[in-house]
Amino acid sequence: MSGYSPDCGVELDAKDNTLIAHWETPQGSTALTLDLSGDGALVRSIAVESGDGNFVDVLRDANPVMVLTVGERDLKKRGGWTIFFDRVDRKPSESGRLNLKLQSVAARSVGRRCFLELDRLEGEAFSGKLRFTLYAGCDLIHVQAIVQTHKDARALLYHSGVTCDPSGNSVSWIGLDDEVHRADAASRDAVPQKVRNRTIALETENGGVAVFPPPHRYFYPLDEAYNLGFTWWGAGFMDRVEEFGVGIRQERLGDRRWIPWFNAPPSTEQKLGVFWLPSRDRGGKLFDRVKAYTNGDKFPVLHGHKTFTSHYHIEHTTRYIEELAKESSDGVPKAVRRPEFVDVFKNAGIQIVHLAEFHNRLGPARRDHRKTLPLLKAMHDECARLSDGELLLLPGEEPNVHLGGHWISFFPRPVMWVLKRAKGKPFIEEHPKYGRVYHVGSAKEVLKMMQLEKGLMWAAHPRIKGSTGYPDRYREEAFFKSDHYLGGAWKAMPADLSRDRLGWRVLDLLDDTSNWGAKKYILGEVDIFEVDLTTEFYAHANVNYLRIDSIPRYGDGWAPVLKALRDGAFFISTGEVLLPRFTVGGKASGETLKLNESGHAKLEAGLTWTFPMAFAEIITGDGEEVHRKRIDLFETGPFGKQTISDTFDLTGKTWVRIEAWDIAANGVISQPVWLD
Questions:
Q1: Residue 225, SS3?
Q2: Secondary structure of residue 29 in the 3-state scheme
Q3: What span, in angstroms and rounded, lies between the C-alpha atoms of 121 and 139?
Q4: How many angstroms separate the CA atoms of 232 and 226, rounded?
Q5: Dihedral, CA atoms, 5, 8, 9, 10, nearest 10 degrees?
Q6: Is the pTM above the cut of 0.85?
Q7: Residue 587: exposed, middle, or buried by beta-carbon count in 10 A (0-12, 13-18, 19+)?
Q8: How confident is the model at residue 583 (pLDDT cuts 50, 70, 90)?
């Protein structure tokens, strides 16, 4: 234990093949006892003390379990590892348990956290170590398999949990009906369980242990946010875990569209994590403790900001038109009067939603100049009807015409336009029914329309999917250089569990465009199809916090939303980490700081978080290279706030931004402050 110090806030006691870890938590304190003899269960007990000085075992004689499903990555497709269009599920794959064959145990500490590392974990293709991470002042036990392979072109899924004797215990979860369910922990065959908040719990006589994954990191990118039953309980899980257990799982077939799984390049340390939350509470109170880490799966209110989300192929307009055709009345069809996605967005704390309609079977009609205008009118009318003081629903599309790659359009008011100008049609037509209509036939005309209507456009999923190679290929085009081209959209795609942050593909794009001198920004996109009360929405979501004071009324237009985007007056968040304030030399993101002769400027960044933080990073560029300064946040506990304040030498730099990430790879991303 030469790398360990009790100053970390976790006390260790090792004797007679037993290792006991003890640390303070919001509930009182927790003690984890590991049996290192190799005989019997690894976790002899987890005990919780609730302030009365008495420890009570809430779990005894249990084992962590990890199962890998390993498939083949197609590296011959465009983009190599930067891939979405891969169907790993249709190629050969194998599932196997990672087995602990204990050879050594090491304890080390950094800041206010302690790492217990057990070597060796062995599987057919991957091997490594088992790690328990304990955070002073935090009630979480972070269990990870740290593994790697030397084989190339591998993609993986992982499934995890805890096994024990089920006698006298029960299993609980929150169902899709939002009620707590409980069942006897009988040794039934293991099956998937659809739950809220991605959490399942094992309840014992004295309390319980909730088991849940990192809320966003565990979910590789898909077109659909279906709830696929991401937890399990029972015996014989995947025919690989004979014992009774509870845990988390991924569905091998995904949403049965494009199924990319997680990248696993050779010799990279894949960190396969799950959280245990032991407590003397059970049922709803236990789940409330879990939900606190994601603010109840809700993006929190932040003073001076409004939440904005983009890129949804919900296709409400399609359903509206189809239902209207079934009814003879002129009113809104009953089936679409109150679509469930409205409540999903409101429940998630989202205030402004930007759609991307006509991406399905109505796509050809949208491209037909004879059929397109009624479709747009229906979308505009439905957005107006469904908007209120809490939610602003805004029309938008992924038109993918004339520019190259895939892109998103956004206007500050309803605009009628035809995607492909028919022969003989003028650029602008004053239509007797629909008013001004634009007929565009080139990138030049797209830009002209954006200029006249004060609109914005940006690359959807840049450098991947249908935007592979973009926006790089048109960086010298007039439309890209204009103020009406915003930049690109950020999403955690592809997924790689060896990375300590999400969405590096688009973070690299932001750095590149900043070094090009283009003054572009990235905004978070979600890029999914169906959204209803059964979907696992929060796991796939991110949000943009815009610096605006109020939600615009639909009838007044929403120019303030576009202005905040164009001005870089926003940050991206997964929800758990927020950035209420970020300035350099007193200038906020999107603004320009004129450096003094010394080239020094003070950076201030106010952070708030739920999970303990991992690190922040100050990123700068000089027009050619990107420079990074990492700030470790190992002293942080859960549910905290901190202001990073320091003076930096920015001589020769042209921009600066900040990111911050927690232990579950939840994060926050600023836009750049420009330097002159």
A1: coil
A2: strand
A3: 26
A4: 16
A5: -60
A6: yes
A7: middle
A8: very high
Give the three-class secondary structure for 343.
Answer: helix
Q: Side chain identity at 314, as an amino acid letter?
A: I
Q: What's the mean pLDDT in 374-390?
A: 97
DSSP 291-329: HGGGTTT-PPP-TT-EEEEE-B---HHHHHHHHHHH-SS
State the SS3 of 118-134: EEEEECCCCEEEEEEEE
Decide which of 3.20.20, 1.10.357, 1.20.120, 3.90.105 is the CATH code for 306-575. 3.20.20
Reported as a pLDDT band with limits 50, 70 and 90, residue 417 is: very high
Other CB atoms within 10 Å distance of the CB of residue 137: 18
CA 81 from centroid of its chain's CA atoms: 19
The answer to whether the CB of 673 falls within 8 A of the CB of 653 is no
| Mean pLDDT confidence for 628-650 | 98
Share of the chain above pLDDT 90, in %: 94
Architecture category of domain 6-294 in CATH: Distorted Sandwich (2.70)
**pLDDT over 90 at 342, yes or no:** yes
The gap from C-alpha 358 to its chain's centroid, in whole angstroms, comes to: 25
The boundaries of every CATH 3.20.20 domain in the chain are: 306-575
53 pLDDT tier (thresholds 50, 70, 90): confident
